Amino acid sequence: MEPIKAIDVRIFPHRRLKPGTTEKLLNELLDLEGVLKFLVNGESLPKVVGYGPARGTRVNHPDRKIITVKGKEVELLVSVGDIIVTIRHENLEEFVEKTKAILEETLNFGFDVRVGIFTRTKTTVSDKLKVAYGIEEDFDPNLIGLVDPKTNSKETVKLIGD
Amino acid sequence: MSYKPQYTPGETKIAQNRRNHMDPDFEMKKIRSINDEDIVSVLGHRNPGESYKSVHPPLDEMDFEEDMMKELVEPIPGAKEGGRTRYIQFADSMYNAPAHPYDRARTYMSRFRGVDTGTLSGRQVIEIRELDLEKISKELLETEFFDPAKTGLRGATVHGHSLRLDENGLMFDALQRYVYNEETGMVSYVKDQVGRPLDTPVEVGEPLDEEHLKEITTIYRSDNVGMREDKEAIEAVLTIHKARTDGGFGLGVFKNDLKAKLGDDK
After folding, report:
1. Do B165 and A43 touch (CB under 8 A)?
2. ipTM for the complex?
3. Which of A23, A33, B27, B85 would staple A67 via disulfide (CB 3.0–4.6 Å)?
4. How confident is chain B (266 residues) per 10-residue block, as mean pLDDT?
5. Is A9:A115 a contact under the CB 8 Å cutoff?
6. Closest to B164 (Cβ–Cβ): which among A46, A54, A81?
7. Is the previous residue joined to B57 through a cis bond, with omega within 30 degrees of 0?
8. CB-CB: which of A15, A46, A109 is closest to B174?
9. A17 contacts in B (CB within 8 Å)?
């Protein structure tokens, strides 16, 4: 595998995004040049109430919805707080410029766009254990830094495009 | 009372709002009205219309040891009936919610009788006899203590006070007990305070205007009124901090005492 130069862009809106806005943003960002992967971060939303007197009842959170990104259905597991996009280094300047334009158009509140390294770049012990203990077979090294070591990447990662 | 309580130091509007909350003689502005039955259903301790559960046999038929305190202190109505102790719990957003946990604790203590309150970083619980709880809840929900968007009525899973608001300006709630109606602009509770679905949604009115919240909030924020702008409050806090630190470490205070204990005084 030939190494490529990649860098992260972190989009931090000043409000938590609704599924509709997230869907619109992701679709528009995916059209830009050089996009490699997205990490949609936020506060996780439970499916059922975990504790207390209402334990076991369904939550039906309006933010936990299935959105369509480039024709693929993606279930949002979080209330979207920030989006980290990994892109090819050569497309950086153009990407940031266009992203800001898209955000200004879609959002009616403030946002920050920062460039840096926001995902893990090296395999950690947890990643190795994941393979060693057979939690997951054929762990794709491209997914490093995207998936929480405790979760199964099949549930949290969606492949879109080619 | 032989002295006039000052409640809290400070010369800014934030400090004044805190004093207003704590002063039992200050009447908080009533901005909405919610049915008694709706409040009962949101609290979720009993069904609307159901009678209050109390001890059996009734208090009058019970034998008690003689207690001076019982004659000295007049019981609150709920205690007189032998009712259960129940709670209401609020979470207040850091984005200029009208009240915040410490303010609530002080307010409850100075405004209401017979309460037990617990302060945590993100939530504030008030425990009192069920009968009195409903009266207090009504006051807390109908006046400017409460904002439908920035204050949450939460018994369990309270997380959200320090998170960013959502696009409609609502505080994060993992159980989504209240929803914002984009057409009418109203917030209504669809679940009770612990997350059990309600039969009929309870409307609690419109979220307050952000500019208005900045006027009535009791939270110091650098984008509104920072605490450093309040000289008097800072002075009081620093004085307490210094006294606590000196006293806690026993600097100069317990020096000789400590020396004696260590056998160092000779």
Report:
1. no
2. 0.82
3. A23
4. 86 94 92 92 90 87 87 90 92 93 93 91 90 92 93 90 92 92 93 91 92 93 92 94 83 72 76
5. yes
6. A81
7. yes
8. A46
9. 167
Query: Is the Cβ of A48 closer than 8 Å to some Cβ of chain B?
Result: no
Q: What pLDDT, in 10s, does the model give residues B133-181?
A: 999 999 999 999 999 999 999 988 899 999 999 999 999 999 999 999 9
Please report the sign of the dihedral spanned by the C-alpha atoms of residue A21, residue A102, residue A35, residue A16. Answer: negative
Nearest in space to A35 (alpha carbons), one of A75, A92, A87: A87
Task: Render pLDDT for A112-146 as a digit per residue (tens, 0 to 9).
Answer: 999 999 988 777 777 777 666 666 666 666 666 66
B143 contacts B28 by C-beta, under 8 angstroms: yes
B141: three-class secondary structure by DSSP: helix
**With an 8 Å Cβ cutoff, is A24 touching chain B?**
no
The string of pLDDT tens digits covering residues B181-191 is 999 999 999 99
CB pairs under 8 A between A and B: 69
What the block records as the tokens of B88 is: 């209401």
Q: Is the dihedral of CA B51, B53, B54, B58 positive or negative?
A: positive
Enumerate residues 63 to 122 of chain A having a beta carbon within 8 A of any beta carbon in chain B. Answer: 63, 79, 81, 109
Tell me which of B86, B123, B166 to substitute to probe the interface with A (most A C-beta atoms closer than 10 Å).
B166
Is A79 close to B166, i.e. CB distance below 8 A? yes
